[in-house]
Amino acid sequence: MNASLSFSDRIEKDYIQAYKAKDSVRLTVLRLLKTAAKNRLVELKRPGGTLADEEFLDLVVKEGKQRQDSIEQFQAARRDDLAQKEAAELAILREYLPAPLEAEELEAVIRATMSRLGASSPRDMGRVMTAIMAEHKGRVDGKTLSGAVKMLLQS
After folding, report:
1. How far apart are CA 53 and CA 39, in angstroms?
2. Which listed site, 1, 34, 111, 113, has its alpha carbon 20 to 30 Å from 41?
3. Is the entire prediction scored with pTM above 0.90?
């Protein structure tokens, strides 16, 4: 991501480019993000304002999770056409997320967090998960993290 552009500025710039290029999928996703941002501002009682980059990141993560859930549901219903549409939208959303942690990085983060929190049993799983999700927002999938934390706490 261009460091000089805020999330909202980047979305607006990319929206205009997608409009000019007649990229309907990208246009749909960006329009959805813009609408979600406006709705979030209303919820926060800041209509007409702008979201901070971290707030926008939360929106993108939420929209990505919705797409992932939809893909799973459509695949279970054998609606591959709809699953592919959601997958295309998810790919665009991922362009706005930070790079995900690699497996080795994730394990190192989990071990460091367990050590820092003094976590040693499966009862500590919630604390470890909460700390990692907060520190690495948008870079780690909850299901993947859950499995990895559970495995490391049981060993």
Report:
1. 16
2. 1
3. no
